[in-house]
Amino acid sequence: MRAVDVIRTKRDGGILSPAQIESFVHGATHGTWEPYQLSALLMAITIRGMIDIETAHLTRAMTDSGRRIDLSDIPGVKVDKHSTGGVGDKTSLILAPLAAACGVVVPMMSGRGLGHTGGTLDKLEAIPGFRVGLTTDEFRATLRKIGVAMISQTTDAAPADRTLYALRDVTGTVESIPLITASILSKKLAEGISALVMDVKCGRGAFMKTPPDARKLAQSLVRVGTANGLKIEAVITAMDHPLGHAVGNANEVEECLGVLEGKIVGPLLDLSVLLAAKMVKLAGLAEDDADGERQVRAALASGAARRKFEKLVAAQGGDLKAFRRRKPYPAVPLAPRSLGYVTDMDAEKVGRAAMVLGAGRFRAADAVDPLAGVTIRRHVGDKVQADVPVFDLHTARPEAVAEAAALLQSAYTVGSTPTKKPLLLETIAP
Ligand code: URA
C-alpha cells in the first residue's frame, strides 16, 4: 500500500479502511512512512475528521503498535481514571488510593506536566525517593500487594503515539478529536485495564475551551472506548479556575494529604469523590454512583484511603517523613488589588505563573523545582481582606517573582457579591 494513496483518500474526504489505517500506524512505528507523509495524513484527518469506526481502528492499531500489559492473573477489576489536564488538577493522588481502598485495582500510568498544566508524575516525584519508573514486574508486584501503582508510561506502550504526538505538536494537528481520542485511549488500553473514567476538562485552563468541544471529545472517547471493549464513562468538569488551593508539585502533594486526612474539604474533595465513586461503580463493586460515593466517603472517614496512600508511597520507594521535613521556600505574599469578593480566577495565568516560578517546563529538557509554585489564599467566592494575601509565591528564582506576580495580579477579578460556578458540567455514559 502506498502512503500517497492513503493520504489522497482522506484528503478527498473518504473513509480509511482498516488496512490503510494499519499501514499508517505501521509507518509511524517502524519508519516506513516518511515524517512528511505522516504529517500530511495527520493534517488531512484534522481537516476531514474520522467516523467512529475509523477512530476505533486507529485506536486499536496504535495500541497494538506496542505491548498490551496482561494483568489477567491479578485478581480484581482494573480501572483507571484519566484527565485531559488542568491547573491544580491533583485528583489522581487522592482517588487512586481511595478507589483501591474500596477494592478496585488501579494500574495508573500518568504523564508529566504539559505547558501550563501539571502532571501527576512530577507531583509524585516531589516525594523524596518516589520511583515512577517501576519495571513491569515491580508494577505487577505492587498492584498485587496493595491494589494500586502509579507509574510513567512504559516505553513499549503505544509507541506509534510517541511519533505521531511529536509530529502533531509541530504541525498544528493536536486539536483533532479523532487524533486526541486515539492517542489517549491507545495508551490506556495498553495498561491492561477493563474500565476507565474520563475527566474531560473544559474552560480557559484546559485543552477544550468550550462545552460543545468538550462534549464532542467526551462522546468520542466514550463511543470509541466502548467499541474497543472498555467500560467507560466521562464527566465534563470546569477548568476555568484552578482546582484547589495549591499549584505546583510538593504543595499539591501536601494538599492531597490534607484531603486524605479529612482536613480539607471543597471542590477538590468533591471531584475526587465523584470520580472515585464512578471507578468503584465501573468495577462492579457499587450498584450506582450514590452507592459508590457512600463507600468512598467511608474509606476516607475510616482513614483507609490515607493508609493506602502511605503504603503506595512506601512500595514505590517514597519517604513521606522526609517529605514532611522539607523546608518550603519563604512565601512571597501578593497583596489584594482591591477589596470585595474574588469573582473569577484565570487558571491558565495561574498555571503560567507557577511555571515561571520553576514548577513547570518551558522546554522538554527543563528540570522541575518540586518546591516552587503558587498557593491560592483567596479563591473564587472568597472575601478579600486587606491583611490577607490573595496568593503566596514560592520560588528559588527571585528574578522570576515580578513576572509571576504580574501574571497573578491580572489573573483574578474582584466584585461586590460572591459567586460560585458548578464544577460538574455534564456526564456522558455509553
Ligand atoms: N493527551 C494525549 O495523551 N493525547 C492527546 O492527543 C491530547 C492529550
Question: In summary, what is this structure?
Answer:
The protein is an alpha/beta fold.
In terms of DSSP E residues, the strand content is 5-15%
Ligands in the model, by name, code or SMILES, are: uracil
What coarse outline follows from CA principal-axis ratios?
A: globular
Largest sheet: 4 strands, mixed
The termini sit apart by 35 Å
CATH architecture classification of the largest domain: 3-Layer(aba) Sandwich
- What fold name stands as the CATH topology of the largest domain? Pyrimidine Nucleoside Phosphorylase, Chain A, domain 2
CATH class annotation of the largest domain = Alpha Beta
- The helix-strand sequence is HHHHEHEHHEHHEHEEHHHHHEEHEEEHEE
Can you identify the CATH superfamily of the largest domain?
Answer: Nucleoside phosphorylase/phosphoribosyltransferase catalytic domain
Give the number of helices: 17
Q: What is the percent of helical residues?
A: 40-55%
Q: Give the number of domains.
A: 3
Estimated radius of gyration: 22 Å
* Strand line-up in the sheet with most strands: 1-4-5-13
* Uncertain ranges: none
| E-strand count | 13
Q: Give the overall average pLDDT.
A: 96
| Secondary structural class | alpha/beta
